[in-house]
Amino acid sequence: MLSIVLKAIxxxxxxxxxxxxxxxxxxxLLAEKNRHLSDPETTILxxxxxxxxxxxxAAGSQYSINYLMRDVGPNLWRSLSEILGEKVSKSNCRTVxxxxxxxxxxxxxxxxxxxxxxxxxxxxxxxxTYQHWGEAPDLxxxxxxxxxxxxxxxxxxxxxxxxxxxxxxxxxxxxxLSRQFxxxxxDEFDYLxxxxxxxxxxxxxLCREILQRFEPQEMQGQNRDCDISQILEYLRTxxxxxxxxxxxxxxxxxxxxxxYAEGYETYGQFFKRxxxxxxxxxxxxxxxxxxxxxxxxxxxxxxxxxxxxxxxxLEAATKLFVEKKLTGQQSWPDLLGxxxxxxxxxxxxxxxxxxxxxxDVAQYMKIKATYLPAEITNILHERFAQISELERGILIHLxxxxxxxxxxxxxxxxxxxxxxxxxxxxxxxxxxxxIAAKYRDRETEFTLKAVVRKYVTKYYATNGKP
Length: 466
Ligand SMILES: Nc1ncnc2c1ncn2[C@@H]1O[C@H](COP(=O)(O)OP(=O)(O)OP(=O)(O)O)[C@@H](O)[C@H]1O
Ligand SMILES: [Mg+2]
Fold this sequence. Notes:
The chain is of the alpha/beta class and 466 residues long. It folds into 4 domains: 2-125, no CATH class; 133-308, 3-Layer(aba) Sandwich (Rossmann fold), CATH 3.40.50.300; 314-370, no CATH class; 375-459, Arc Repressor Mutant, subunit A, CATH 1.10.10.10. It is built from 23 helices and 9 strands. It has helices spanning 2-10, 18-33, 39-50, 54-59, 65-84, 93-105, 115-130, 146-158, 174-185, 203-214, 216-219, 228-237, 266-276, 292-300, 314-323, 332-338, 343-357, 361-365, 374-386, 389-400, 407-413, 419-431, 450-459, and strands spanning 131-132, 163-167, 191-196, 240-245, 282-287, 304-308, 405-406, 435-440, 443-448. Strands 1-3-4-5-2-6 form a 6-stranded parallel beta sheet, with helices on both faces. Strands 7-9-8 form a 3-stranded antiparallel beta sheet. The chain is elongated, with a radius of gyration of 28 Å. The chain starts with a helix and ends in a 7-residue tail after the last helix. Mean pLDDT is 84; it is low at 1-14 and 106-111. Bound molecules: adenosine-5'-triphosphate and magnesium ion. Residues 140-145, 170-176, 246, 286, 288, 312, 320, 343-344, 347 line the site of adenosine-5'-triphosphate.
């Protein structure tokens, strides 16, 4: 079959006419993909030869611009890129086919790359062109998280989960874990896009940015409106991994968990549609707060999951302490417990221990008080500015209590606290990763995480005001 194609190339003059290009592409597709060009693909190839835009192609055919530009076009360019071993797009298609034809005329046996070569070249193109890491941190010291990495792998690689949310307190390691995980799985995807939502892009801007990264040639110089449907179409026709870091930035403050900031409500629709619609891709969200859509989708579909990230295990933290040359090993578990394994807190505290205690954790633990580094205080200041009065009241009450309290105890002890409000506020605090639940005698009791307790005691517990 390949020899027939090479013959076709050799008999075709350079600077091809459209009919010759059509014949050539059909023969290549037949040889390599066992198919011919479809009618809409032929429309695109003809339009490309004529140098007209997708708008004009749509106007002169029965197909919509969306269909041609978002669905048929990307697939056609992708197939040709794979077969020819270099990135083919609307803007370079003529040049590539001309070059391809010339190499055939010169009798080059490499005009069509071998399957293995194609795979290699296609992978290189994919890595260079289709992976956008944005502000993802460099891979740095990373310890533990074996169970988390395995679970993410199962959900995303094996079960083809569509929406995953990693949530937990600031500094717990969500960004680091996602970065580490993305590195292990990136080659499974046609496209990878990492974006922090910290600067709160609007949905149309975000959609445009994604498409500009995935189809730079197609989007060049265009400032068209882009919407969720176009992204979903992409998620359907390609296997994409979209990682949105700092997703809590688009959530609203001063309310129970999960509400979106004003003007950002469409993110909720976006995440809902990502979770509900059938497609081949995955959106991974990192957030300090569990997103409302995740809570709902987790119950209704097996394609949405979330994981509340807890602290490092003793094994992982031990590696960190060894790396940082700390001593006083008998006190390492206590230090870990004090900061609940929060890697940001541990990284900050170990600098203090090096500076003030010559790296000896045992000496530091003799202080018998929780030191709250400024960065952790700032994270909690932000969190506290976002919670409701009632949630704050419950945290203060729990901080004053010397033991964990059940729902009924809280209602008994806090005047004017009604059952409905109490349940909603406690669920909200859990999803904001500010309280921990313990199960005792078939009842759930709630308590503050150690760092949060220290913060509340320091800033609120005496008079209820910061
Ligand atoms: N498994 C790990 N091993 C070693 N260091 C880690 C690990 N996870 C996180 N860190 C370090 O801890 C710090 C905080 O991690 P990271 O930024 O990922 O937290 P985060 O949960 O994303 O916080 P935020 O909510 O503020 O975005 C970083 O300096 C990171 O390098
Ligand atoms: Mg982060």
